[in-house]
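Why do we care about 3D structure at all? Because function follows from shape, and shape follows, mostly, from sequence. That is the central idea of this module. The next example makes it concrete: a single protein chain, its amino acid sequence, and then its structure expressed as tokens.
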Amino acid sequence: MGEYFASLSLAGLTGRIPAGIAQGIIWGIMALGVYITYRLLDIADLSVDGTFSTGAAVTVMLILAGHNPWLAMTAAFFAGLLAGVVTGLLHTMLGIPPILSGILTQYALYSVNLAIMGFKANTAISVDRYALVLSSRYVNSAILTGGILVLTIIALLYWYFGTEAGAALRATGCNAVMSKAQGININVCKVIGLSLSNGLVALSGGLFAQYSGFADVNSGRGAIVIGLAAVIIGEVAGEALLGKRLNFAMRLLFVVVGGIIYYLVYTLVLWLKLDSNLMKLFTAVIVAIFLAVPYLRKQSRSSFRLAARLARKGEKQDAQA
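And the structure:
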């Protein structure tokens, strides 16, 4: 045991923290996409595992073809929009449940992503040959670029969801029946929400491919779980720190903070020299805990439980008297 703790270097941990923050920011953008479907539309969209890889594939292949990295990421964003439209149409026009629509899109995107990369499972890209937007070699620059991009995206989302169209989308997620009664085309809102969500996920995939130096057809595997973890962790952290002052803009910001916290925990796990193959187990436990916290807190504040505690307290006082 002593040898194990002696092998742990605090300097090694602090040296890894910036990389964890950079990756957390990138995955935080993906979590913003998950937040739109999971919280605003109340839809569990599983197609994000596929669209993340789509964004990575489109970005890398366009950069390799000589296109500007920002233009490549824009194309990745629109590719994600298209994938989201497919998921939305499968659900709204064909009546397929949203969770199955996402699975079908994700399943189809595996072949699409392979085709985009010339039927190669992995395609590398080097910062030495191409002027990438960010790279793991320049972590501080990646944090700065990612931070500016995150703030820009949050500002645009905050503006959009304050418009009439954005408010209609949020209303659809809150109460689809009442929204339809008010004349809102809920099917159009669902398609828009799913497309916007997957566009952000694909953009995140493009950033991650540049940061890591390659696009992999399986890079999006488990993305939905990481996204949910970031959303839940961010919400719990935001409510704990700001309480009722947690407005919509801050909720969006704390989703990204949740992604950073998740990757800092991941960095800690690697620093502790635990088996990285167990990370999915740790992630599942973390998500379960943070999902349970709001429910348990609500249960503890319920009138029935409060009355029961007061009754037990009164019985103890009577017994002591």
